[in-house]
Amino acid sequence: MGSNIFGGKRDAWLLVLVMLVAVLVFALITSEFRLNNFAITLVSGLFQGMLLFLVASGLSLVFGLMDILNFAQGAYFMVGAYLAYDLQHATGVFNITEAVPDPNIRFIVGVIVAILVGAFLGWVLERWLLRPLYDRPLFQLVLTFGVSIIMLEGIRNIWNTTPYSWTEVFGIREAQFTLFGQDFSMYRLFVIGVGVLLIIGIALLLRRTRLGIVVRAGVEDPEMVSALGINVRVVFTLVFTLGCAVAAFGGAIAAPFLGATISLGATFLIQSIAVIVLGGLGSYEGTAVGSIIVGLALATMQQFSIQVSIPVLATITPMLLLVLVLMVRPQGLFGEAR
Questions:
Q1: DSSP 164
Q2: Which of 11, 208, 255, 286 is the Cys-Cys partner for 84 at CB 3.0 to 4.6 Å?
Q3: What is the pTM of this model?
């Protein structure tokens, strides 16, 4: 099957390369070989891919360690978006514009609050609801799905169902950069950079720290880790809390572009599940690569669907990619055959 390369296999990386080349070539074709149009697709694809990673990475980490597919993950993304929007705008429920008049500082406050709330809600879910159900997988799925509905209803009661568009101006959102003669908001580059840093940071956490060693050992043999005197349940709680905090962080930094709507959670959850299955369940490398591939494919198909007037093409793109990959590698790109 080939030798290991960064946690994957040679044939898996070859398939990744083929998929990336195919997507980029198709993006060039749909852009009519105009570099400025291609730049729009490329930047949009990387932007969407990084947002997907922020949701999917938590799903992948939790599933890899705990064998729990957290159906509430998208709801944490949605909560982060609403909190960031609310704390930035004077029309929000929690109006802090008088106390914090600088919009740049309010944005930072909104992101921090989203992370803390996401972490707290994740801790509550794992510690008080999921922990008694570790040996009952079906109940875990039902529970996390129920929690997502509860969080959705909570948002409806606090902010109602009206979609909110981000209108507040702050520095990095208004700054511009140019690629292939096309101007873009610097905020897109910021989100892409944050995603890349998180990919690297979480990889280093898993591979270079004691916590990462314990997490990877817990995936392979939790009984042995417990026998060594390590409290595996505490590690489970930390990983679950981290996954939910990252999802809420993703929602907060997505809000300036996507706004805050009650459909955000379901949309990103479905796409993220496609990403982690495509990348290989429990494979962090697969999740990172899968997010980039799906993001670029989404942006390309969004452009193509406009040209052919078939909007549904973009909607079904993640699932089409998933089907194609599973036909070639049933375990996903970097998943282990079971």
A1: B
A2: 255
A3: 0.92
